[in-house]
Amino acid sequence: MPHEEPLPFWLVNVPRDQWPSECPEFLKVCSEKDRRIIGTPDEEYTLLTWEEARELVGSGRVDKFHRKPSELRRYRQFTHRLIKEYGSISNFIINERLQWKSMEPKGSPFEYAEDIKILYNDWPYGIDPDIVHLVVWTKFELEDDPATGLSTPESHRELEAFVQKTFASKVQEFVWFKNWRSLKSVHAVEHFHVMLYKPDAAFLQEITHGDVPMTEKFASA
């Protein structure tokens, strides 16, 4: 039996009748890590369970969250298009997703609801479908320790208080985390993450004001 050469990473998870003749522009500059993930067949990728996701957050290993291979490919295609159309991902987030005319906060952290917006994570990680991944965007800064890149104790307390107030009475199981500064994909707008396990649909509709993640809107070319 002849030896079959492995597919180039940029053809994996793409139907044969849609194979491009060369590596798409949005994948030409790609880290080794992303090449490895995108080059993994979806059927070989294992979604994280709620217990595994909670363990990663609890141990501070949020760098271990990854997107499903085909979703990472779509994410890179989407962000490539965004940068061409809007100049940066941050411009798109502020003008289209958040629709904030001003980034000046009205008050101190978590004082005013208008300084906060809760939306779906547009491109969630490879996690159990029962886990809903939200992003809390804020106009105010959430202070980091410059030495560690992690939240300061005071900032952590403020975040914990907000999350408990917002979610504890509505969802039985949830976790939150703020990415290390080095892991952030959007630096210009402050944000942190909340994962909810089996939340009520009506509550999600209310808290996100009917938001729909971009992964459900974006059609790959």
Automatic annotation (TrEMBL):
InterPro entries: DUF3605
Listed Pfam families: DUF3605
GO cellular component, one term: cytoplasm
Source organism, top-level taxon: Eukaryota
Entry coiled-coil feature ranges: none
One annotated GO biological process: N-acetylglucosamine metabolic process
Protein name in the entry: N-acetylglucosamine-induced protein 1
